[in-house]
Amino acid sequence: MLKQLILGFTLLLSAHxxxxxxxxxxxxxxxxxAVPIVPRWGxxxxxxxxxxxxxxxxxxxxxxxxxxxxxDSVTAYDLYKDKAHQEWVYVMYYSKRQDLENExxxxxxxxxxxxxxxxxxxxxx
Length: 125
Fold this sequence. Notes:
It is a single chain. Helices cover 22% and strands 41% of the residues. It has a single domain (22-118), classed as SH3 Domains (SH3 type barrels). 18% of the residues are buried. Strands 6-5-4-1-7 form a 5-stranded antiparallel β-sheet, with helices on one face. Strands 2-3 form a two-stranded antiparallel ribbon. The longest helix is centred in the N-terminal third of the chain and has 17 residues, at 2-18. The radius of gyration is 18 Å and the shape is globular. The chain has helices spanning 2-18, 23-33, and strands at 35-45, 51-54, 62-68, 73-81, 87-94, 104-110, 114-118. By secondary structure, it is an alpha+beta fold. It comes from Acinetobacter wuhouensis. This is SH3 domain-containing protein. Residues 1-20 form the signal peptide. Keywords: Signal.
């Protein structure tokens, strides 16, 4: 019985690691397929929830603890449509927080989290 449990657990772990997502590899592939946004888009977060950055345009690549909130402004640089036809944008955000003063944060976020503000970024640098 114990051997069967150990074997089952080992198989479960093997399956997990076999299907683990390599976000950096995924991002490299996406960079080749993404469409540059020219001129750049200014976007404002419309969601009332936290909007998380992703290291690649995939839910599994969410960067924990790195998010923006309603009313924050970003500049969009690239557009990518995934296999589920969801649109993602590669954005840059300049933090207003004291602990991240003048820090730029970048990553992928679903386009539907934003309101389009035009081609001139609403951010001030």
